[in-house]
Write a sequence for this structure.
């Protein structure tokens, strides 16, 4: 099932090039009172939501996908985690660019076969989440903002110290994630957390629709020119190990996002650019890059 959030917070079921407005299914989400439970409500209540979506589908108004504004399908993850340097060619090629490296990464990654095992995952502020309708607002025009297209893994059931063998049972689904980045020497969590620097979309795809998340072709274009194009199979530390590493340190909650690293070909974007991303099974989306407002 492909679930989107569109227009004024409508819940959509994506089928082909149509969106079915299944917002009636949101009635199964319990009303929220203080203290708010950690995690994304849509994913936390997915088991109740999916039958309600099937029910609401019958009488759902249908709209062409091309005519709706798509927002991030996830609104309240407790954290967005991300794997550093998780594609070998990205490390070998992109860190040769002094505009990417800033004297930081190449040195730190020398002789390190599996960087995420050595350095762990980093966190991006959840306030950085945006959808394709909002696009990316470049925060510091005098500094480079780069695109990084990544497979985003969405946690379904909470867990701590999850074993590799059990890890995939904790995955609710996937979407495409942009780990937008200001290049420089500050900590990653700072440079990668401006508002709009985590674009998620075009919709949330339940795990049953993705037989092998390590065999998806993923691509990114800027103004029609292809910059990134790789199989997710090239990631160094795979999804079960990323879940094991992440959950060895903190409890994962429903809706939490793991960005699994970017393949080679990262590069700058500037206001006026249009970015398009596509991934097998997960769909495609375009968004605008604009100046910070
Ligand atoms: Mn990244």
């Amino acid at each position: 099932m492909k679930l989107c959030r569109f227009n004024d917070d409508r819940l959509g079921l994506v089928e082909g090039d149509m969106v079915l407005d299944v917002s009636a299914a949101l009635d199964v989400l319990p009303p929220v009172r203080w203290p708010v439970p950690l995690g994304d409500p849509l994913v936390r209540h997915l088991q109740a939501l999916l039958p309600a979506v099937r029910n609401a589908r019958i009488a759902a108004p249908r709209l062409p996908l091309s005519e709706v504004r798509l927002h991030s399908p996830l609104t309240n993850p407790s954290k967005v985690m991300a794997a550093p340097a998780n594609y070998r060619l990205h490390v070998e090629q992109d860190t040769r660019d002094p505009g990417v490296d800033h004297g930081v990464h190449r040195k730190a990654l020398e002789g390190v076969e599996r960087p995420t095992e050595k350095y762990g995952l980093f966190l991006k502020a959840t306030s950085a989440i945006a959808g394709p309708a909002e696009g990316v607002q470049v925060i510091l025009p005098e500094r480079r903002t780069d695109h990084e297209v990544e497979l985003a893994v969405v946690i379904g059931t909470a867990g701590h110290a999850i074993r590799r063998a059990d890890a995939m049972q904790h995955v609710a689904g996937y979407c495409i994630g942009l780990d937008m980045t200001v290049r420089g020497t500050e900590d990653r969590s700072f440079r990668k957390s401006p508002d709009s620097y985590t674009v998620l979309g075009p919709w949330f795809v339940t795990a049953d629709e993705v037989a092998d998340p390590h065999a998806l072709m993923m691509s990114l274009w800027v103004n029609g020119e292809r910059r990134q194009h790789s199989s997710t199979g090239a990631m160094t530390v795979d999804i079960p190990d990323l879940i094991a590493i992440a959950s060895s340190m903190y409890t994962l909650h429903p809706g939490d996002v793991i960005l699994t690293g970017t393949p080679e070909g990262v590069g700058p974007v500037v206001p006026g650019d249009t970015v398009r991303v596509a991934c097998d099974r997960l769909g495609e989306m375009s968004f605008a890059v604009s100046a910070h407002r």
